[in-house]
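The passage that follows is intended for readers who have already worked through the single-chain material. We present the inputs for a multi-component assembly, then the predicted structure in tokenized form, and finally a short commentary. You are encouraged to pause after the input and sketch how you expect the pieces to fit together before reading on.
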Amino acid sequence: MLMTVQDFETAARMRIDPVHADFIAGGAGDEITVRANEEAFRRLRLLPRVLRGSAERALDISVLGSRARTPVLLSPTAFHKLVDEEGEAATARAAAAAGAIMIVSMASTVAVEDIAAAAREAGEHGDPPPLWFQLYIQPDLGFTEALVRRATDAGCAALVVTVDSPVRGAHERDLRNGFLDLPPGLRCEHMVDPREGGRVHPIAMSPVISWEHIDWLRGTTSLPILLKGALHPEDARLAVRHGVDGLLLSNHGGRQLDTVPATVELLPEIAAAVAGRIPIVLDGGVRRGTDVVKALALGACAVGIGRPVMWALAAGGEKGVRRLLELFREELDHALALCGASGVRGLPPDLVRAPAWGPASAHTEREGGA
Ligand SMILES: Cc1cc2nc3c(=O)[nH]c(=O)nc-3n(C[C@H](O)[C@H](O)[C@H](O)COP(=O)(O)O)c2cc1C
Ligand SMILES: CCCCC(=O)C(=O)O
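Having made your guess, compare it with the prediction:
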């Protein structure tokens, strides 16, 4: 029975090529940050209030003009057709049905126009939340601008610019497995260049991308821009100064620079740096309803999930992702009720206790890492 995120992973692994499972599960280097994200949530403790609940909990959110029925959004993940024939179209139908915002990866194997059509189809009985589009700014600005226009025309309501990838992370599992490219028949649909008779470009990850490019992008689009992957509080402040509308506080699920801190550990510092001027979405290691409560109480307005979506899609296609999102909804609602909260908004930071450093934390780490 699929009762937890872990169950989806187990079910997925029985169905997919172990090389693809490694691509999903893996991260950079020693995968210290991959583990740290989940462990950090396990180390945090919830301190509930009593005698103050309500009959129903409000789970809906509104962020940068996008309304959603849940604060759990789908972080951008590449290559959904690796694990499901319909790929991102299936994911989009499930997200629309759940009223969840889906961030379309620039490296998706279905084109954004087709993903948007799938979402509309599933949202027939009520407006689905809009899609957002994740972008790696390409040194070829003409190409980048055309892609932004494409995403905008398809109806995407925000741009999520990934800035933690001046070069690609070293994924040793993929290197050992020789998984260096998509298998024949699959391609990154957004990298097809209409100017060059449909040539498919590789996605450039370039160290020359700078704040000037963010300024340039700010000038070419009126869509809200979120930065994904800024981790230093000074960069969070710079983002505000450069007119960025929101942060997706993310360490790329431990797939870029290894040994960076867990995102939830950075959250209080980043929240203090932006001081409410722009919203913060957090991803990395969110696996339980209690994790969602912790992130929201510490200052995020929403959370993203990456690997769980890939596992659910691999385990059960559209239905699998639907069930996963339902599960997060049930767990979140249950945890909020137990915390004495009436909804996801305005959760106070004193709901969360971080254990003191020292011997106590070494003890809990052992417990979490088992
Ligand atoms: C298989 C896979 C593919 C990913 N592809 C992208 C991508 O194309 N663009 C991007 O910005 N982040 C990408 N990410 C990172 C996710 O957006 C997200 O930051 C991360 O997975 C969150 O951590 P979690 O997997 O622990 O939930 C990918 C992550 C995984 C696991
Ligand atoms: C060029 C594909 C990038 C995918 C990605 O960001 C990841 O695997 O983490």
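Commentary: The chain has 13 helices and 14 strands. Residues 5-369 form a domain with the TIM Barrel fold (CATH 3.20.20.70). How closely did your sketch match?
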